[in-house]
Amino acid sequence: xxxxSSLLRRAQQSIMKFIDIGANLTDLMYTGExxxxxxxxxxxxDVINRARDNGVVKMMVTGGNLEESKKAIELAxxxxxxxxxxxxxxxxxNEFIEDPEKYYQDLLQLIYDNKEQVVAIGEFGLxxxxxxxxxxxxxxxxxxxxxxxxxxxxxxxxLHCRAAAQDLVDILVKHRSxxxxxVVHSFDGSAEDRDSILKLGFYIGINGCSLKTEENLAxxxxxxxxxxxxxxxxxWCEVRPSHAGHKFIKSKFPEYPALDKKKWKEGCVVKSxxxxxxxxxxxxxxxxxxxxxxxxxxxxxYNNTQAVFxxxx
Length: 313
Ligand SMILES: [Zn+2]
Description:
Layout lengths: L1 H14 L2 E6 L9 E2 L2 E2 L5 H10 L2 E6 L4 H13 L3 E5 L13 H14 L4 E10 L8 H18 L3 E6 L2 H11 L6 E4 L5 H9 L3 E4 L7 H8 L6 E3 L27 E2 L9 E2 L8 H12 L3 H16 L4
Parallel strand pairs: 1-4, 4-5, 5-6, 6-7, 7-8, 8-9, 9-10, 11-12
Antiparallel strand pairs: 2-3
């Protein structure tokens, strides 16, 4: 009986399809490098295969600046199920300062040259938790500047927002008619933030960082299913045992033993380095909190993501 029901569960689970909208697969951890030290061979292929084996059919590789956007595109050319975003993260907007017009044109050209791979502008936005990397006024200036990329290309937005929802929404409102829409990823804001993003018609991306506290869970619960997207933000934002959402996880992936990076072996995952296949855990938490059927919810999130980032496929 137990055997049959677990077989049935496997069969059902294999039907679920995911799109990870936030996969930082250009991160050097996937080449085995951690804080400048080489710890193991590159295992990016294994990471991608584990994602595929668990129903992740597409992954959006985030570009955090011009260089990283180029790398994301390179990866997307190598793997047919990977796609790229092009843009400059709020913490890196100082890169614009030396020659803003050139930096902007380089981003724009990169998109024009790689239309097959690039599915969004981003990640960009505002991050007031980390103004030590880039001051508020610089962040705001080049966030607004990059909205021109959206208008020029017609691409949707992949937005990053930390402790800055009011300013972010105000800027988006001002330019709303020029923008096709998009998602605020890695959302961890208040109910008020949630509602102002929804009012704009934007989607909200949920990962482990969005599910840390009971308050996070309560805010997430009231995101309508037709405005929800799932992501991992890997290698960051894994769901940790101390997080409020952790108790709802069903998939523990015993088939992938987790080892310390110094002891890594082929076929193993690295402790505390997140990967796209854990998107299923994000779904499990969201479904449990919303008291919804995981399959139905997975399908809604998949369809939402398709409609915004892959309208032609
Ligand atoms: Zn982000």
